[in-house]
UniProtKB/TrEMBL annotation:
Residues 1-20, 34-71, 98-133 are annotated as: Disordered. The lineage of its organism: Eukaryota, Viridiplantae, Streptophyta, Embryophyta, Tracheophyta. It is found in: Chromosome, Centromere; Nucleus. PROSITE patterns: PRE_SET, SAM_MT43_SUVAR39_2, SET, YDG. It comes from Acer negundo. This is Histone-lysine N-methyltransferase, H3 lysine-9 specific SUVH4. Residues 453-604 form the SET domain.
Length: 642
């Protein structure tokens, strides 16, 4: 069986694809009238926007599902990705704004006899960087009605389980988990006294943030004594400056005591690896069991609220001192199941250990040669006719004069923050190349600067080898390039060689969203490609001509698994030339990825185009939701993405 239009051709995955098709066919037979005639007539495929209710016995948890609806988890992820996109766009604006005073100051210094003092320059820099791109991002989402769960609710928020991590208070606002970026207590006011909450006494608290901002807080994990809001010295020394009053959030928590209403508890901890230097973890629902007023440490009246965690919830992932979601090794001696200290042989910026807790004794990956740079087959000659390069010196700063920035839509695709982050996915990213005047540390060379995060290859019980990071990876952060041997696709016989590591360079497909690819932002300067504007049956020239074979020679990317809900995305990058057929393939973080979470990307299969040797369609997927549910990512009791 041949899977048409896949991003990475893999014999191993092809077998699993066939198994998924068999499972879908069996489900269709069970669905009866819902898909009657669909499997028999291949050309009659219902629209994905059609709503079809199916019998609860055939669904997980006995539920009735609308096939066009996204899961709550997917909606949360989608909303946070949108927040990160807006956030990075505003970061980009701030970096440009801050760059102007620096340039102007240098110019004025050369003209003025009396330069400003160092103190004055520091004050100018602080003023220039005073803006909050996270607040701007969430404000824009609220203005555009892009936030999720804008109506406050009591109890858990759909799609956010205990242990979920946020990296900004504004992220919580974006998904409706906590409605204010500064206040510790979130509550429902009198406007909610109608409808399903009409029998409650308002205000009612819905969530609190424990972040150590009050000197009177006492957090013992399962049991919490929480200091009410108000009277707080906002200079950062945590001290009270006046009496608190029983109003607003304090009154809302009091009403929770009297009406037995649970609240969501979020704990904030310092995190040097987080882009905000803090991480916020949802620790579950707590019952407010008692409140009282007393004189606080600073001598002012404060209200205290005792909360106790409800039973039957997942175990806590944080405590009052340490953030303990995953234990990242601090040295080689702490690594459990170590099979190889460094599979790269010292080639990368950081060693990449291989761990194996499955096999006894532990064995390391074998059968390949690690290489950090792309190798080229003898019958391929890379283009060298780069027609444009920038004349910037040191580092590219001004997109108005940088020739490479103009190719990217008159702006840099990256921001400096956190060591370089891609603002958003594009058709193709034009980076500075060998004929440019800037140096290797230029922000527009971000993907050329090697590994930025400590990675680990680890053995899984059912999925073979996989990859995870020891560091937090912010959305847009470059993870790695897909490295192997550049070959012509016609020279690769997957079935004969049983090669699981072929990656088609499909930049052209991405431009038009062909074969199931997600459309990208089209604001870059790409030469006209005639085949993309032809009818679908006349696009043979658009099929990938070249691929990267990491079977026997490759880097860390060859071990990264597929997932239908990935945390990485593929980005085509051009630097040493401008031929999209030879684009570099780079993996970037699609989400904020916490340490020790498996890294995955979508291999790009087309779910409804499985063809036989004769080229004819063997089977079309009738209900896309059913296919997604039966995807191998969630089969065989897998708790992690494949």
């Amino acid at each position: 069986m041949v899977v048409q239009g896949q991003r990475r051709v893999s014999a191993r995955i092809q077998e699993k694809q066939e198994e998924k098709q068999r499972l879908v066919k069996r489900r269709m037979e069970l669905l009866g009238d819902v898909v009657k005639g669909g499997a028999e007539e291949q050309n009659e495929v219902p629209s994905q926007t059609t709503s079809s209710a199916v019998a609860g016995d055939d669904l997980p948890n006995g539920s009735v599902v609308n096939v066009s609806e996204k899961s709550d988890t997917a909606r949360v992820k989608e909303t946070l990705r949108l927040f990160n996109k807006h956030y990075l766009q505003f970061v980009q604006e701030e970096e440009k704004r801050c760059a102007k005073p620096t340039v102007n100051r240098k110019a004025s210094k050369s003209k003025s006899k009396k330069a400003k003092t160092k103190k004055e320059e520091t004050q100018e820099d602080a003023k220039a960087k005073a803006k909050r791109p996270d607040l701007k991002a969430v404000s824009k989402m609220m203005l555009n009605n892009e936030t999720l769960f804008s109506e406050k609710r009591i109890g858990d928020i759909p799609g956010i389980k205990v242990g979920y991590q946020f990296y900004s208070r504004c992220e919580m606002v974006a998904v409706g988990f906590h409605s204010h970026w500064l206040n510790g207590i979130d509550y429902m006011g009198a406007s909610y006294s109608k409808g399903k909450y009409k029998n409650y006494k308002f205000p009612i608290a819905t969530a609190i943030v424990l972040s150590g901002m009050y000197e009177d807080d006492l957090d013992n994990a399962e049991d919490v004594v929480y200091t009410g809001q108000g009277g707080h010295n906002l200079t950062g020394n945590k001290r009270q400056s006046r009496d608190q009053v029983l109003a607003r959030g304090n009154l809302a928590l009091k009403n929770c005591v009297e009406q037995s209403v649970p609240v969501r508890v979020i704990r904030g901890h310092k995190s040097s690896s987080s882009y905000t230097k803090k991480v916020y973890t949802y620790d579950g629902l707590y019952k407010v069991i008692q409140y009282w007023a007393e004189k606080g440490i600073s001598g002012f009246t404060v209200f205290k609220f005792r909360l106790r965690r409800l039973e039957g919830q997942p175990i806590l992932t944080t405590n009052q001192v340490f953030f303990t979601h995953g234990r990242v090794p601090q040295s080689v001696s702490e690594i459990r199941g170590l099979a190889c200290e460094d599979i790269t042989g010292g080639q990368e910026n950081f060693p990449i250990p291989a761990t194996n807790m499955v096999d006894d004794p532990p064995v390391a990956p074998t059968g390949f040669l690690y290489c950090k740079s792309l190798q080229v087959a003898q019958n391929i000659k890379l283009p060298t006719n780069v027609v444009v390069g920038c004349n910037c010196k040191g580092e590219c700063v001004d997109p108005r004069i940088c020739a490479c920035a103009k190719l990217n839509g008159s702006d840099f695709p990256y921001v400096h923050r956190d060591g370089g982050r891609l603002v958003e996915p594009k058709d193709v990213v034009f980076e500075c190349g060998p004929i440019c005047g800037c140096g290797p540390d230029c922000v527009n060379r971000t993907s050329q600067q090697g590994l930025k995060y400590r990675l680990e290859v680890f053995r899984t019980p059912k999925k073979g080898w996989a990859v995870r990071s020891w560091d937090f990876i912010p959305a847009g952060g470059p993870v790695c390039e897909y490295i192997g041997v550049l070959k012509r696709t016609e020279d690769v016989d997957v079935s004969e060689n049983d090669n699981n590591y072929i990656f088609d360079i499909d930049c052209l497909q991405t431009m038009k969203g062909l074969d199931g690819r997600e459309r990208r932002l089209r604001d870059v300067s790409i030469p006209t490609i005639d085949c993309l504007d032809r009818p679908e049956d006349q696009r043979s020239e658009c099929l990938p001509e070249f691929c990267i074979d990491a079977g026997t020679t490759g880097n860390i990317a060859r071990f990264i698994n597929h997932s239908c809900e990935p945390n990485l995305f593929v980005q085509c990058v051009l630097s040493s030339h401008h031929d999209v057929k030879f684009a570099r393939v780079v993996l970037f973080a699609a989400d904020n990825i916490p340490p020790l979470q498996e890294l995955t990307y979508d291999y790009g299969y087309v779910l409804d185009s499985v063809c036989g040797p004769d080229g004819k369609l063997k089977m079309q997927v009738i209900l896309s939701w059913w296919f997604r549910w039966l995807c191998f990512c969630s089969l065989a009791g897998y708790n992690q993405p494949f």
